[in-house]
Amino acid sequence: MKSEAIKDYYVINGQIDTTENAEIFEKIEKPPIYEVIRVIDGVPLFLEDHLNRMFDSANIIGYNIDRDEQEIRKDIKSLILKNNIDKLNIKLLSTEIEGKGKVFLVYNIDSFYPPEEYYKNGIHTILFHYERNNPNAKVLFTSFKEEVSKALKEKNAFEALLVNKLGNIPEGSRSNMFFVKDDKVYTAKASEVLIGITRKHIFDVCNKLNIRIVEESIHIEDLKKLDGGFMSGTSVNVLPISTIDDIPLDSINNKIIKEINNGYVREVENYILKHKNEWV
């Protein structure tokens, strides 16, 4: 794979190196296990959840990550301080390279955060027929990523809603999906999707607000009956959907979606305030 590392430095197996010396990326052939963590005000958001998911992904596919949680935390702090990061995503990547053995990389990546107009107007999405073989493991498959990127570019869309062979929509290509009908929020069962960190905290927010979540995938034939929908993810938070192909959704005016978004923003602010002193 090509090097994704930006800024001046990255970390390999606990050692700081310069991104000018990043030939190691070219040697990665096996699909790696990875996590992308958002840094806000110098704090890696919901870090504990990300690390738990990364180790869970490894267990699912029978892979052992050599570095423990404390070592990874140290790697992340070294990178944040060395690259002087205040707001940017960090990627953790673990894989095995022929002739070198296991490697654990920590580095900054190009990060896109939707502008305010996306939240005010909603986003355009498309349907994309695809089914993950192992939805609970966060493993990078380059061919899938390239196919989706091509489809999004051709149709000028922000995200692709994955449609399985039964016609259900369990998730997005890089996000979890939520749909609103009347006073309920629908999203796929945990066993059918990669359990997003933002998804987990949205469940917490809904519980606090007494908003009922039904863990059930929406069928493509029911899209026109919805009152709204939104995607969630590390870099997008709660992002309302205005269209799915040619189907309009009035998500930006939906009361439930607004309440969930406001509640999630509060969760983020509280986490940063609580953990700020750990990262200075």
TrEMBL record:
PROSITE patterns named among the record's database cross-references: AA_TRANSFER_CLASS_4 (PS00770)
Source domain of life is Bacteria
Asked if the keyword Magnesium belongs to this entry, the reply reads: no
The cofactor named in the record is: pyridoxal 5'-phosphate
The alphabetized UniProt keywords are: Aminotransferase, Pyridoxal phosphate, Transferase
The record's section on InterPro entries has: Aminotrans_IV (IPR001544), Aminotrans_IV_CS (IPR018300), Aminotransferase-like (IPR036038), BCAT-like_C (IPR043132), BCAT-like_N (IPR043131), Class-IV_PLP-Dep_Aminotrnsfr (IPR050571)
Q: Which GO terms describe its molecular function?
A: transaminase activity
Against Pfam families, the record matches this protein to: Aminotran_4
The family this protein is said to belong to: Belongs to the class-IV pyridoxal-phosphate-dependent aminotransferase family.
UniProt protein name:
Aminotransferase class IV
Organism of origin? Tissierella carlieri
